[in-house]
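Postdoc handover notes: sequence design on the structure in folder B. Input tokens:
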């Protein structure tokens, strides 16, 4: 013998196992050969044989050397554990033949033959005596009980029965079933007077102890698919994980038959319950098992699979038996019989017989081959769209016309083709397959629906549930149970269940239990379903809250009515039995009675499920009567009384037929609701309305309950007398009149049930769902709540409507209520004395509840103060708001122009103040500031718009505070700035005063950046610094050394050369118009200058702005017009003379920049989810371009923002479904090459139900935009006189100039 050691890689200690490998039989051998049979015609015959071999031989059956066609249904072949049989179910004369069983494996073949002779049964009746059959009665005295056990335990199941008569030579056989399927093993039944017979029923087995605590249970139901030469596909079902951690994956192990050493097939855990095992040896047989893995460890291995041989499944189809005579047969492969040939032809009909996530199983038809050389195949694949082919099996040629291609990508489309080859060459490729898409991993199933528990026995409960909406290749369900108040969930079934109902056994009587369900597929378990309502375990048919029924037959139906007749058939309706017998009535049967023939006949053989039936095949003019039977689980009840005689004549009256199925609900002391169904026969025109008649029981007086016809099939009848009984009937009406009356209803007692409650309507404080809640005053084990709208049962739950029932209370919830939910809602409780109620939701009430629902789902944190700002020292800006109250878990975000700020933020729970501090407040901060607050589910948002003058004021204040802090707090500063001091002797001095001086402080004077040393040093004690200044020195500045502090002063006395330095007038283009400029060496506004147009003096105004800089005097003309044409004169006077400079605007050229003419508001307030349209009129030549900005960010057109410019005049932006994020500043810019304008609009979005914010419009002036390109101004060619000494700078060629006016200097 051979000893082999094996160590496990997945446990802490190392286990050494010694395995003895004994000798194994390789070739097939018949231990029991076939025997010949002689049988009579039309009788069955069964041929048996026993074969052994390794690997397990495959047996094929031949009739006269022709392979049997098993698919015909005449022959039945079985094979298990080496025992094989062929059954001919009904022999014929043509079945006389010689039958051969051929056993084959990779090591050889063996065969056995037998003859079957079929004789005619002509002499049977003459030979055999008459057989008298004896009936054997079997009565079970004791049924099976539910048995529980653990994995690995031995369980015995037993029952008792009596057999009469008990014949020793005629004993019955016991057949075993498991999960509804016949067991493979037959157990003989032994009957002794004192010994019970044995059998089987339900057995519940729990997982054995895991190798590691909290490790998962063992997988189950191991199956082998698509076995071939070198691979098989193994599938299994996952175990339940009630208290264990989630399963990470699985390990698949294999073991060769006859060996005991298991080898792990995958290196890392796989996550799905299917795995292709490759690398098998052809002709060897294998067994497989699976282990589950979680974070705690590895489970026990699953039950071992049945042995499977790695063989080509098509190999036996290529065998051919040649009869040599006697008992000698030669079995050859088809290829060996062919002559010498050449390269094979191309295969055909390539298709995918199985498709999975990462592999595809291909099958094809072999080519017609004529050669002795072995034939094999190559497979090629191509990703759709790639245009290239890749060979799959480069190392291992394939001999069978079937192959699995692995390692494919999920959800991709592939093409496949096959090539045949032999030693002479390779064929052309086959036609490519159609695109084959691999499956996509869809995930685990969704959670199962509502779980309902119902009492059954003292130790069991019936569980029912709705299947998941997304099954995703559902395998089954696991059910868990838990005692109310504990969290110890235990599994009720350790094997996946495919049905949606299950009886949980082994519960404690009187204990309260809850249940939940999980769905599973090959990827694992779904989320748990909602827990069922707690249920006390006790027998179902015990004393209940309302009624007690013992199972019995139902009572008879009654009230058979004729609804329509067409001369060949009649439509009937009837009322339910008053007593169902304790179980629901499921079926109805109808008998008809021909009055003339006086005989009853059955109408329907299949049972009827509804109480409306069209009786066919009637004779015109014949009178019929009908009776109805009701059936339940126990059996068929008594028939109803015969109906009134109905003559089979076609209805032709123009009025409608009778309504039917009257029912009375919501019975109160003075009212009740009558419901009915529309007539089957409408008459000559459609039904337009209904009338309800009422009659007090005991009288024949009928009165109309409604003066005007109603167009729906229900009516609330009021004005009833408490304690009186009433009968109702209904009449339908059309254009021709009122039709037949319905069958009267059963008497109704006008008295509300004791403890009756009405429907409550409200909004859930936690979820915000609108709900209708009804608490029934009566309830039974089998009661159900039926909710209706407009008295039509609610069956569509796709719009967020849900029903939740717990005990005697049921709630109808609206997750997404809308206007369609306005109407009357009603509920009735089955198996009670009529417990029911209704509630009418009006449009006004629904609107209020929707607003309240919105507030609950989107709670708002009330604010004491909206977002504001304050300027702090150092020029820092603090943005703050104050809430009514916040918790320590509050979170908040600040935004500036839709960009989140990550800076200093803090909050105070005591005061509710939330602050953000900006250390650097600059021009870039202009725009909209907002803060978003969330405290639990409550939210709040506030915004502050800082643009235009408001922002400039805040920026100026911040700059001032920053300078003051530096001046006062951080060192020396000027307490008195630099100024000119003229003494009595007409001497000029520059004087300033500095505070916070130190001993080491020093002063430095500069003139035109050249240091000047004063004759008298500065007085550090007083901080006064003086510099005598000669008259010819025009300017000086002081620099304080220590603090890098500067102060400058320019002096321009009326010197003789001041006016002579003036240069020629030049024209420049500005954002708002044009500017005339005169450059000079020194200029201040105190100088004596005059601007004139056509000899008229120009005064400074908003349109004519006179000003300048220290080196230039200027005149800006805002929005120049035709009136501004002409000669402009500039005069400057000094001590000696007056200097004049002129420039003529000739009016050549045109200039019409883009403008906003009007139509836009300053402030817009709008409720969210509405549509906002901003429209205005623009102009310009050429046509301007319009650009929209949101908080200084350009708006991109899309589904939400629609931007239009119609005819170059009407500009608009439309915002669809505005949200709170759309609050802020919107800017429209209109611009062409000559310039343009921009205007701001403030948009404020508020929530539904909030008060419209009171935002005062701030006058935001239009901003002028400069031209986009330089504008050339034509200038007159006449030369201008040059000044004597001009220091004006030359005109820059880069500066833009106006094109509306030509210019000519003088």
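Designed sequence:
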């Amino acid at each position: 013998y051979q000893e082999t050691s094996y160590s496990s890689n997945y446990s802490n200690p190392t286990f050494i196992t010694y395995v003895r490998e004994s000798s194994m039989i390789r070739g097939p051998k018949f231990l029991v050969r076939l025997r010949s049979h002689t049988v009579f015609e039309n009788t069955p015959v069964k041929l048996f044989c026993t074969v052994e071999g390794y690997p397990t031989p495959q047996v094929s059956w031949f009739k006269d050397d022709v392979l049997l066609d098993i698919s015909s249904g005449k022959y039945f072949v079985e094979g298990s554990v080496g025992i094989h049989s062929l059954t001919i179910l009904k022999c014929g004369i043509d079945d006389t033949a010689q039958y051969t069983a051929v056993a084959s494996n990779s090591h050889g073949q063996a065969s056995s033959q037998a003859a079957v002779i079929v004789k005619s049964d002509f002499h049977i009746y003459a030979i055999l005596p008459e057989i008298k059959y004896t009936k054997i009665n079997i009565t079970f005295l004791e049924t099976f009980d539910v048995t529980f056990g653990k994995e690995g335990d031995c369980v015995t199941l037993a029952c008792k029965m009596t057999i009469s008569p008990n014949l020793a030579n005629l004993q019955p056989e016991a057949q075993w079933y498991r999960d509804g399927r016949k067991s493979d093993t037959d157990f003989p039944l032994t009957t002794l007077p004192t010994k019970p017979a044995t059998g089987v029923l339900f057995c519940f087995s729990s997982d054995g102890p895991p190798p590691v605590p909290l490790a998962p249970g063992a997988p189950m139901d191991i199956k082998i698919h698509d076995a071939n030469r070198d691979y098989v596909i193994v599938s299994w079902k996952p175990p339940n994980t009630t208290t264990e951690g989630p399963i990470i994956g699985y390990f698949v192990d294999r073991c060769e038959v006859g060996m005991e050493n298991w080898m792990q097939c995958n290196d890392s855990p796989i996550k799905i319950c299917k795995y292709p095992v490759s690398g098998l040896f052809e002709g060897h047989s294998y067994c497989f098992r699976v282990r589950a893995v979680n974070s705690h460890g590895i489970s026990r291995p699953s039950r071992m699979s049945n042995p499977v041989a790695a063989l080509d499944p098509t190999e036996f189809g290529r065998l051919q038996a040649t009869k040599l005579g006697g008992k000698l047969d030669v079995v050859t492969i088809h290829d060996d019989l062919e002559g010498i040939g050449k390269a094979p032809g191309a295969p055909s009909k390539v298709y995918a017989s199985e498709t999975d996530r990462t592999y595809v199983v291909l099958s094809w038809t072999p080519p017609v081959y004529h050669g002795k050389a072995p034939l094999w195949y190559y497979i090629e694949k191509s990703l759709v769209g790639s245009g290239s082919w890749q060979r799959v099996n480069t190392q291992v040629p394939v001999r069978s016309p079937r192959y699995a291609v692995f390692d494919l990508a999920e959800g991709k489309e592939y093409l496949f083709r096959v090539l045949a080859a032999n030693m002479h060459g390779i064929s052309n490729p086959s036609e490519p397959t159609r695109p084959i898409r691999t499956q996509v991993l869809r995930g685990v199933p969704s959670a199962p629906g509502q779980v309902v528990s119902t009492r059954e026995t003292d130790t069991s409960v019936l569980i029912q549930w709705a299947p998941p909406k997304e099954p995703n290749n559902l395998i089954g369900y696991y059910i868990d149970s838990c005692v109310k108040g504990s969290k110890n969930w235990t599994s009720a079934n350790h094997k996946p269940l495919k049905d949606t109902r299950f009886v949980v056994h082994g519960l404690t009587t009187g204990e309260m239990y809850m249940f939940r369900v999980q769905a599973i597929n090959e990827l694992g378990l779904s989320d748990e379903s909602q827990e069922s309502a707690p249920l006390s375990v006790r027998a179902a048919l015990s004393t209940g809250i309302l009624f007690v029924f013992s199972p019995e037959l139902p009572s008879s139906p009654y009230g058979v009515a004729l609804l329509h007749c067409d001369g060949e058939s009649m439509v009937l309706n009837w009322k339910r039995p008053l007593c169902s017998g304790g179980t629901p009535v499921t079926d109805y049967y109808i008998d008809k009675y021909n009055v003339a023939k006086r005989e009853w006949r059955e109408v329907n053989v299949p049972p009827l499920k509804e109480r409306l039936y069209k009786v066919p095949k009637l004779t015109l003019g014949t009178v019929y009567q009908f009776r109805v039977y009701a059936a339940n689980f126990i059996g068929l009840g008594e028939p109803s009384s015969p109906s009134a005689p109905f003559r089979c004549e076609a209805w032709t009256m123009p009025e409608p037929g009778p309504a039917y199925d009257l029912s009375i609900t919501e019975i109160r002391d003075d009212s009740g609701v009558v419901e009915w169904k529309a007539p089957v026969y409408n008459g000559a025109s459609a039904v337009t309305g209904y009338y309800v008649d009422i009659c007090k029981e005991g009288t024949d007086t009928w009165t109309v309950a409604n003066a005007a016809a109603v167009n729906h099939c229900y009516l609330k009848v009021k004005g009833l007398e408490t304690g009186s009984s009433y009968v109702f009937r209904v009449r339908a009406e059309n254009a021709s009149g009122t039709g037949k009356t319905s069958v009267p209803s059963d008497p109704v007692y006008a008295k509300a049930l004791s403890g009756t409650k009405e429907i409550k309507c409200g909004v859930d404080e936690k979820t915000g769902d609108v709900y209708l809640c009804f608490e029934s005053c009566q309830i039974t084990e089998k009661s159900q709540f039926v909710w209706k709208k407009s008295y039509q049962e609610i069956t569509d739950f796709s719009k967020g409507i849900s029903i939740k029932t717990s005990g005697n209370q049921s709630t109808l919830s609206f997750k997404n209520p809308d206007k369609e939910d306005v109407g009357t809602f009603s509920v009735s409780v089955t198996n009670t004395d009529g417990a029911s109620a209704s509630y009418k939701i009006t449009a006004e009430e629904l609107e209020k509840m929707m607003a309240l629902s919105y507030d609950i789902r989107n709670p708002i944190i009330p604010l004491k103060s909206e977002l504001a700002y304050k300027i702090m020292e150092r020029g820092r800006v603090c943005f703050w708001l104050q809430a009514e109250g916040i918790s320590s878990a509050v979170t908040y975000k600040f935004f500036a122009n839709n960009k989140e700020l990550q800076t200093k933020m803090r909050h105070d729970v005591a005061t509710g103040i939330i602050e953000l501090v900006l250390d650097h407040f600059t021009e870039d901060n202009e725009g909209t500031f907002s803060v978003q607050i969330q405290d639990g589910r409550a939210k709040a948002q506030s915004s502050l718009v800082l643009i235009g003058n408001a922002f400039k004021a805040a920026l100026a204040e911040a700059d001032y505070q920053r300078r003051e802090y530096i001046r006062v707090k951080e060192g020396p500063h000027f307490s008195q700035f630099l100024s000119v001091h003229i003494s009595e002797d007409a001497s000029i001095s520059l004087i300033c005063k500095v505070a916070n001086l130190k001993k080491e402080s020093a002063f430095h004077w500069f003139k035109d950046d050249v240091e000047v040393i004063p004759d008298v040093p500065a007085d550090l004690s007083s901080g006064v610094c003086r510099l005598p200044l000669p008259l010819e020195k025009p300017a000086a500045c002081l620099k304080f050394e220590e603090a890098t502090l500067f102060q400058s002063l320019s002096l321009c006395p009326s010197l003789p050369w001041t006016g002579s330095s003036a240069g020629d007038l030049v024209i420049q283009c500005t954002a708002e118009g044009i500017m005339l400029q005169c450059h000079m060496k020194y200029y201040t506004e105190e100088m004596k200058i005059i601007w004139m147009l056509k000899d008229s003096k120009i005064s400074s105004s908003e349109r004519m702005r006179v000003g300048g800089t220290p080196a230039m005097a200027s005149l800006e003309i805002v929005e120049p017009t035709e009136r501004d044409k002409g000669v402009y004169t500039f005069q400057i006077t000094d001590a000696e003379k007056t200097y004049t400079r002129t420039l003529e605007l000739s009016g050549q050229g045109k200039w019409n920049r883009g403008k906003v003419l009007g139509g836009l508001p300053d402030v817009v307030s709008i409720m969210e989810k509405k549509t906002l349209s901003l429209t205005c009129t623009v102009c310009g030549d050429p046509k301007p371009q319009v650009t929209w900005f949101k908080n200084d960010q350009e708006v991109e057109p899309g589904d939400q923002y629609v931007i239009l410019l119609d005819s170059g005049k009407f500009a608009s932006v439309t915002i669809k479904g505005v949200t709170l994020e759309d609050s802020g500043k919107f800017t429209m810019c209109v611009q062409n090459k000559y310039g343009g304008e921009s205007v701001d609009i403030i948009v404020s979005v508020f929530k539904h139900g909030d008060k419209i914010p009171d935002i005062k419009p701030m006058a935001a002036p239009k901003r002028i935009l400069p031209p986009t390109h330089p504008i050339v101004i034509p200038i007159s060619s006449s030369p201008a006189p040059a000044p004597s000494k001009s220091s004006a700078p030359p005109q820059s060629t880069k500066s833009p100039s106006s094109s509306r006016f030509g210019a000519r200097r003088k």
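Context for whoever picks this up: The longest strand covers residues 108-119. Don't rerun without checking with the PI first.
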